[in-house]
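User: Can you fold this complex?
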Amino acid sequence: MNDAAGTFPSTVARDSVDPVPLTTVGGFDYETDVIIVGFGCAGAAAALEAAAAGADVLVLERLSGPGGSSAQSGGEIYLGGGTQVQKACGFEDSADDMYAYLRAALGPHADEEKLRLYCDESIEHFEWLRRQGISFQETLYDAPGWMAPTTDGLMWLGENAWPYGTLARPAPRGHRPPAENYGGWLLMEKLAAAVDAGGARTHTDTRAAALIADESGQVAGVTARHFGQDLRYRARKGVILTTGGFVDNEEMLAAHAPVLLGHGKVSDGGDDGSGIRMACALGAATRRMGMVEAALIAPPSLAYHGILVNALGQRFINEDVYPGTYSHAALLHQPAPWWVIIDQEGFEAAAATEAPGLQPQHVAETAAELGSELGMPAGALETTIATYNQDAARAEDRYFHKNARWLRELNGPLAAVDPRVLGVAAGTKTGIAGFTLGGLHTTVDGAVIHVSGRPIPRLYAAGRAAAGIHGEGYVSGTSLGDGTFFGRRAGRAAAR
Amino acid sequence: MNDAAGTFPSTVARDSVDPVPLTTVGGFDYETDVIIVGFGCAGAAAALEAAAAGADVLVLERLSGPGGSSAQSGGEIYLGGGTQVQKACGFEDSADDMYAYLRAALGPHADEEKLRLYCDESIEHFEWLRRQGISFQETLYDAPGWMAPTTDGLMWLGENAWPYGTLARPAPRGHRPPAENYGGWLLMEKLAAAVDAGGARTHTDTRAAALIADESGQVAGVTARHFGQDLRYRARKGVILTTGGFVDNEEMLAAHAPVLLGHGKVSDGGDDGSGIRMACALGAATRRMGMVEAALIAPPSLAYHGILVNALGQRFINEDVYPGTYSHAALLHQPAPWWVIIDQEGFEAAAATEAPGLQPQHVAETAAELGSELGMPAGALETTIATYNQDAARAEDRYFHKNARWLRELNGPLAAVDPRVLGVAAGTKTGIAGFTLGGLHTTVDGAVIHVSGRPIPRLYAAGRAAAGIHGEGYVSGTSLGDGTFFGRRAGRAAAR
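Assistant: Here's the predicted assembly.
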């Protein structure tokens, strides 16, 4: 059986994740203290800290090199409480303000213990990341967005938008390595180099298949495949699953997060839930398996230069929030189709900088005509635009409190633009892409919890294989953020 | 340790659900072919069919008698395709129309294989229920509602409301035993008598603790407690978990369905997720653990005699849908607080028949005053009511297509009534109550699926311990319906 890297996805459904009894393992091909399954940001952080604690560490990666889905990401890391970058850009911040914002933006019902720790120790985590070679320019990108098109080291991620700005003192907390737009590759380049330098070994093209456990349920290692060869790895101190989420596993999506079925996947293609399934086969508990990040892919400035309406012509959110926030509001809660309604001035401002060549789907002389063309109830779009223009004229959005900076009357001919337009243009069938946030139930030290409530001995998880600091919300940087933060804690705990 | 029925809930978190190895079980206190854990509707249906197939059957029930949460329920069973009751009331129906309705109302992403079977065999299931002694009067209760205040045998459950009436030929499919309002007790009285007559034995005050499994993972029985005594039950052919959902387990709610935290529980107090946890300890897969039924508890006629608006004064649904549908729309998707806005004529019509003594929370002479008192954006409620009144005058709701039968201009002084008012009055702190819909991943024959994708040998589940025919929606009768329907199939499969 040739099980080379390129054929992995098709084997997902067939492969057993049944735990292998230690008594049936005749011998081991490799032995080490700590095995880490998956070389994304969480695996890298775990490897660095486990090695720093003196453990012999081996990282197994199914692909031919490190990076994982982290390397495909924007690269923002959500950090605050008063980092050097925040201070240099003129912002005061505190762990309490960071906590208050994240509790609202990632809520409701985020894990408060994890979130509190994440905020309280954020400055230390920032310094640790810098020690691994990751640099952040001390300049601010000052507009709402998914990512910055510049090399600025700091950006807003919804902190200054209503209602968040009223719940906590706003400070930008999106910390970015110096790359235009996508910067995950740079983050992972630095982390992988640090892992190498720190002494952890890596086996690439090696896909973990199942956990090895003794009769008491204690984890003793993993089985894996390397180009068709079956390998047995012994972990004297612990196994850390950093295998990512499950957006690439259609059966798991159907079972747990069907809202992402059919949409684009923000992943490296290997987020097949294998780590979650391996642990569940040992009785591991999960949390919030239905939670997702899902993005309507449009130029970010399109929404805040115009208004966002649902199929009935109603606005439903201040358009200057983090774009993921309006994406969730639309996809999860509003009747589709959704439209950006915008005038020529707004459209040109958005298209010129972010999407040259962009074309609106519909154009009309009046709101009534446009509403009719879009099949909205008679009068609906006129009322919405008249109200919005009144509010723009007096610089106060009575419904959703969009910042006055972005309030401007919509004049002249109007266009309707699909807020998924860039995604469709880029080949994402539905113009929507996302990934999963739910996963294994872990302690703050990454120990995987059994459905009985006790930790499973010597089994750890971090990154998107675990449920982290998210409730139902998401902002950029919180997945790389909690992946590296709790990955480090899992690495230290496993090395003890 | 005294583990009498009354003290069960406090022991939930402490108790281990770890599987007990068969090799460690010295001997058994009882042996039978099929063990059924839990005597609600699914357990009863499983017991009846397993016994009818010739198996020796034993039902374990933690409380002192049969009934479970099923006995606390409304008692509607969702049946159709052209039952005798539907025909006698003058309605034509088909399995395809039933399927089209349920696919929309219980969707998106309901289990289509289960749903198809449930609809195709619904007439047979209706006849089977009648053979167990359950009678249905051949009369229709003709208004939207959770339950009927009459003994009518048939009621609408949203089939004739927009958009459902446009997706399938509408026919009422809520079949009810002859009891005013709550009828679950009567349903369970008949089923329990039938179980007795069918020869299955029952051990009450007996709480299953863990599954017994052999080295290959095949289920061989259960351990249980009976007034502090530990008992071991051998099941030669299979164990069927019909233990209900997990609304009474706060930890599981926090992990999977936090939207119900703090709200009322529609249960007998014992829906602690124990069956789900016992199976997951053996590596069972789950589906849709976040799905819930959640009801805003108000007189059903209050909403359709008035309009329902969100915190911004916007309508968001046709108020003549099944009340669970507007409850979900509000609770899961609309900014709170929600209000019923109603005039004196409407209020009196609702209060007179369904809630004598009901008082509105706010009254005002005009929509502007009322909107201001409710803290809505200036002009919002006036616009909503003016639009609604225009539509009522021409008998066409341009936004949500509420049936013309319930469209009536709102005139004179207006009241705002909290759509949770009856729940609050009845002592449900938040005026919202619900239960969980997610559970074990099962085949159409009730076999519990392992995370590896294969069935766990000799383990079955049905009722709310399993994921059934629900996607994200719910209508009355579909839980008793799928509990009895798939309970029967599990009983037959286990007896084979």
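Residues 149 and 181 of chain B are 5 Å apart (CA to CA). Chain B has three domains: 16-62+199-292+435-495, 77-175, 298-427.
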